[in-house]
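Dear colleague,

Thank you for sharing your sequence with our group. We've completed the structure prediction you requested, and as agreed, I am returning the results in plain text so they can be pasted directly into your records. Please verify that the sequence below matches your submission; if there's any discrepancy, let me know and we will rerun it promptly.
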Amino acid sequence: MSTSITPAPPDIIPTTIDARRRGLQAAHSVAASVIALSPIAPMGVTASCPPYDPNEPHVEIYFYDGGAGAYQAAAGVAALAAALGFPVTRRRHSGSDARAYVSAEGMHAGVRVHVWTLLAEVVATDV
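Please find the predicted structure tokens below.
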């Protein structure tokens, strides 16, 4: 039994691959820059570039709550948001999860950056 694979037209694939590579490089560069700016070290950093939209790189910065560290996690989001010039929002995580979700989002060097934490504290309503 043999399988035949028809390659995609060469004029489409390299353009998409190159655009995604450039997007990933931009996201990783911004991630490194944002880590250096952050007064409090984040728990995690993710740099990504979706294959369906290679011109939309994205960086996600996560601060871990861990219960007793709630102050530092929220302070980490606030401090990094201030350094980047992003507004901070605080709301219920979801309709069924009343924990506080603190986040900031904006563009830095042409890349969307999302900074967030999920706190152990409960929020009665969105604020």
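Summary note from our side: The chain has a mean pLDDT of 83.

Kind regards,
the structure core
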